[in-house]
Amino acid sequence: MEQDKINQENMGEDKVETKKTPEVIIYTSDTCGYCHAAKEYLDAIGVAYTEKNVSRDVDARKELIQKKFMGVPVIIVGDETIQGFNKDRLAELFE
């Protein structure tokens, strides 16, 4: 490990720590205002996400029910599930 550090210093490289962005899935419906707000917020902060619209996708609806949720939005960020549009929690996760 120390040798790696020395080699990087000798090569003039700065060690840059990169933070991996977790996978983000958002369950939405066409008529949900909070869903639209959550997507707009994620877009504004530059977070890529996969949208699963339960209004149009029967499989997405079944997935959401299997996860024991009956309302949207449900936002999954890595291992964390957020029910509703919690802007403060999303901000914490993507600082």
Explain what you see.
- This protein is of the alpha+beta class.
- It has a single domain (17-93), classed as Glutaredoxin, CATH 3.40.30.10.
- Helices cover 39% and strands 18% of the residues.
- The protein contains 4 helices and 4 strands.
- The protein has a 4-stranded mixed sheet, with helices on both faces.
- A hairpin with a 2-residue loop joins strand 3 and strand 4 (80-83).
- The longest helix is centred in the middle third of the chain and has 12 residues, at 33-44.
- It is globular, with a radius of gyration of 19 Å.
- Residues 1-9 have low confidence and may be disordered.
Q: Give the low-pLDDT segments.
A: 1-9
- Let me know the number of strands: 4
Radius of gyration: 19 Å
- Which CATH first-tier class would you pick? Alpha Beta
What is the helix fraction of residues, given as a range? 25-40%
What percentage of the residues does DSSP assign to strands (E)? 15-25%
**What is the residue-averaged pLDDT?**
86
